[in-house]
Amino acid sequence: MDLSSMILQISFIVMYSEMMAYGFIGQEERKCKYLRVDKLLKIRCYDMNLKEVPPYLKTSVEVLDLSFNRIKKLKRSSFQPYKNIKFLLLYENMIQSVEPGSFSYLTSLQEIDLSNNALMTIPLEIFQLPALRNLYVDSNDLMYLPSDLEALERPIQAPLEYLNIADCGLQDLPDLGILPRLWHINASLNPLMDLSIERFALMCNLKSVDLTRSELTPCQCQQVNNHLRVVEVKTKFVPVCLETLDGSKCPLPYNYTINSMDFLACKNSVKLAKKRSMWLFVTGCAGGILSVLLIMWLCIHRRRKKSVKKLRASALQRRSLVISPKNAINKRDHQLNYNNHNNDLLSCDTA
């Protein structure tokens, strides 16, 4: 291969990559990839310069990756065809607005990643999705979230377990009501200068928290650490307090956290959830056992029915072969009459 042909090939590759980067190659040449991940149908439309959610995908998709595109707005009809989505990746787009009802069809959604977009709030309907466990909205300037949360219906329906609100310019943790299943919250890279210690009373099942690079006051730092140690939460990513304040300057937080009505209500919700899950487990086991017993009874009943049919059939066969005494006498008389008649005919012929 000569030098000129090599230069042409390299130039073509460079031009092709540039055309892909700036979107000059149409979607028909850059198709989404279909694959199976843990038996889930995944469609990967990663970095395709898309400006909207494509409406031509397979409707049975369960994992949809639309990250690194140029989507600016989510419409009410964006996800209407894809009601089976369980995991939705929308990070690194340009999403600025979300029409009401955009996520209302996603009743099976378990995880959504909206990080690194241009959102100024979180759509409140997200908090009412009945299966949502993991929510990522980090690296968005959520300046309108505190005021929008005033209209939030509490308690929320989403069983949130993991919440990432890092680097969102927040002055306080969002008030989402009681979160009995939440075990981790990442609120790092936020100022949190107005942090309310009461927010932690709503997270009674917390196991770890990330508050690194926040701007807590000395009293806030002390109160947060005291509360987290009492409830045995990992404080690895919590700022270390540089000074210890006495009770007159910084009161203990327990009246606002573990001794508050919100904390008790949260704990009661956890107990009710455990009882409900135990009851569902017991009823499920009982239903399974009853189903097995019913199937066994049906099998035994069918076998008995078949055996009874066979016995009846064999009995009928035996009955046709058995000759009763009365029938035997009648048959003998009939045979004698028949023989006498034949003898009479023979006598007549002889005469």
From TrEMBL:
<protein>
    <recommendedName>
        <fullName>LRRCT domain-containing protein</fullName>
    </recommendedName>
</protein>
<feature type="transmembrane region" description="Helical">
    <location>
        <begin position="278"/>
        <end position="300"/>
    </location>
</feature>
<keyword id="KW-1133">Transmembrane helix</keyword>
<dbReference type="InterPro" id="IPR032675">
    <property type="entry name" value="LRR_dom_sf"/>
</dbReference>
<keyword id="KW-0472">Membrane</keyword>
<keyword id="KW-0325">Glycoprotein</keyword>
<dbReference type="GO" id="GO:0007165">
    <property type="term" value="P:signal transduction"/>
</dbReference>
<dbReference type="GO" id="GO:0005886">
    <property type="term" value="C:plasma membrane"/>
</dbReference>
<dbReference type="Pfam" id="PF13855">
    <property type="entry name" value="LRR_8"/>
</dbReference>
<keyword id="KW-0812">Transmembrane</keyword>
<keyword id="KW-0732">Signal</keyword>
<dbReference type="InterPro" id="IPR003591">
    <property type="entry name" value="Leu-rich_rpt_typical-subtyp"/>
</dbReference>
<dbReference type="InterPro" id="IPR001611">
    <property type="entry name" value="Leu-rich_rpt"/>
</dbReference>
<keyword id="KW-0677">Repeat</keyword>
<keyword id="KW-0433">Leucine-rich repeat</keyword>
<dbReference type="GO" id="GO:0038023">
    <property type="term" value="F:signaling receptor activity"/>
</dbReference>
